[in-house]
Amino acid sequence: xxxxxxxxxxxxxxxxxxxxxxxxxxxxxxxxxxxxxxxxxxxxxxxxxxxxxxxxxxxxxxxxxxxxxxxxxxxxxxxxxxxxxxxxxxxxxxxxxxxxxxxxxxxxxxxxxxxxxxxxxxxxxxxxxxxxxxxxxxxxxxxxxxxxxxxxxxxxxxxxxxxxxxxxxxxxxxxxxxxxxxxxxxxxxxxxxxxxxxxxxxxxxxxxxxxxxxxxxxxxxxxxxxxxxxxxxxxxxxxxxxxxxxxxxxxxxxxxxxxxxxxxxxxxxxxxxxxxxxxxxxxxxxxxxxxxxxxxxxxxxxxxxxxxxxxxxxxxxxxxxxxxxxxxxxxxxxxxxxxxxxxxxxxxxxxxxxxxxxxxxxxxxxxxxxxxxxxxxxxxxxxxxxxxxxxxxxxxxxxxxxxxxxxxxxxxxxxxxxxxxxxxxxxxxxxxxxxxxxxxxxxxxxxxxxxxxxxxxxxxxxxxxxxxxxxxxxxxxxxxxxxxxxxxxxxxxxxxxxxxxxxxxxxxxxxxxxxxxxxxxxxxxxxxxxxxxxxxxxxxxxxxxxxxxxxxxxxxxxxxxxxxxxxxxxxxxxxxxxxxxxxxxxxxxxxxxxxxxxxxxxxxxxxxxxxxxxxxxxxxxxxxxxxxxxxxxxxxxxxxxxxxxxxxxxxxxxx
Length: 655
Ligand code: WT7
Prior knowledge:
Layout: H1 19-23, H2 30-42, H3 44-52, E1 63-68, E2 71-76, E3 79-80, H4 82-86, H5 88-95, E4 99-108, E5 114-120, H6 121-137, E6 146-149, H7 154-166, E7 170-172, H8 179-189, E8 193-197, E9 200-202, E10 205-207, H9 209-217, E11 225-229, E12 243-245, H10 246-250, E13 262-263, E14 267-273, E15 281-286, H11 287-301, E16 309-312, H12 319-331, E17 335-339, H13 350-358, E18 362-365, H14 367-376, H15 379-382, E19 391-395, H16 401-411, E20 418-421, E21 455-458, E22 471-475, E23 485-486, H17 490-498, E24 505-513, E25 519-524, E26 528-531, E27 534-537, H18 538-546, E28 551-561, E29 565-574, H19 582-595, E30 604-607, H20 621-628, H21 643-651
Parallel strand pairs: 4-17, 6-7, 6-8, 7-14, 8-11, 11-12, 16-17, 16-18, 18-19, 19-20, 29-30
Antiparallel strand pairs: 1-2, 3-13, 4-5, 9-10, 14-15, 15-23, 21-22, 22-24, 24-25, 26-27, 28-29
Helix pairs in contact: 2-3, 6-7, 8-9, 11-12, 14-16
The protein binds 5'-O-[(S)-butoxy(hydroxy)phosphoryl]adenosine.
């Protein structure tokens, strides 16, 4: 990891929030933002204590925060319940008939019409309670981890809420992951129950989710129960005594279920994310702190108001779907749109058609999607009236200024503030982001810290570096939704986040601040790729490759890709007796897809006689990244064992 990151980015365009937006926003000016931010830093207990008054507590807390790095406890001694606060509390405010989830199917009928379901808070509560009662009937209780492997249907959100209602932490596994990935996660979490569906619609095809789950469960010795929501009607084998249809288990259940009083620090969910080494980490989030932060970031970052139709295009399998589909919007009593399928089905105008038909006001997506739309052509956008939109957001990776400008002009019609939100699975919610009614934005920067966030750019000793100098992006004070650990692996938690810089949370990202104090994220400092806004650990992909009998060694790096941001490039050396050819390349790509999932599939496999290593035997990925990008290898090669290796790689053909 190099500490000397240089930044050559220059961006001088500044966009002030439109006056009409600011005048009705929750936070109306920079003065207001600064005053509130300062207060949140000077008196965090006062600040967060006030926010927490929004919620219903089954037992009041004694203390707002206790922190001794790396361990934080928030709202100590209190008891509350997430599902209660998302549903019952909102219904008690008189919003039982308000639409909570506005769902739209991927398939469309002959007239081009999708199926639309508007599920009210009242209905979502009943659905949640029936699932909760059904889970209880299966023997699921407080503390039992329930795995959820489901498509983007309202039942997925209801399943998450049902878990939190009875105090069973959920572990949502993105439905694009493979059987191996499900099994690893269930085994790691000791999860005995999985909720899935028969299939999932994707670009007009049916992905057989239940079949994948069957394969996974064959490798989960302690697996006990599997509940299958019927969605696509595809044929699925059911195992007697283990598998249940949703209808037989849930439909007859009472539609009320008492919410379990949960201690503030009880585990709310685990969500697995990739790291640079070893298997994915089960990031732990707890009840009250996460709830408070998901609520407040949704309110202020998206400037949520009563009549908004809010749409986040993420999948519930990622943290974005947890905080900004399932929890944040419901905690704010808002209407959240949920779309089942692909952005280009049946055509590339699908998203804009949805925005127009449902009069979406707040739209949150990823830079990789924006780049894909740019590529598909602006004509798909221009067919639609997007005037309902009042603000936009992005997340997942740095947004390149061209994509930012395109988003601003073509989607936002030049009038919508854009919130480029920097955060992570580990942080639970937005950390660095504009507050749309206040913060002037510049294309490519996530701007300034959210309330309560003491973000800084430091060197390895923890000293702040001067403006425009690159360094490590750290958080110096606790915040309510900070991760509480890595499930079952205390050492990894301490080593990954709390060891690089003494006493501070290190995000793993490099960044700089400009003269206005704005944060410019420069990317990961570890061996983690960011493909289409999703984190992939190089080690996982490498071990999937080495698992093939022909492969001796492999090194995976990212290479620039104009839509995905980064694509996977794998360097592979073969065992003697094996030869590189197109067939092997196909097999190896497929192997990664089977072991991890399609998002990890390498775009390129390059064969080499040897990989460049330091004298101590460490693979020099910096060099491989340059080779993969087609750049000349520059920089310090004095520790390289054999420079011939690099010359051969550069000259060597493309497998
Ligand atoms: C990593 C976290 C947070 C939900 C989506 C990804 C990168 C995320 C931004 C942004 C620049 C960003 C960082 C971060 N990242 N948002 N707005 N600007 N980089 O969650 O899988 O936990 O990945 O994504 O590198 O560390 P994740």
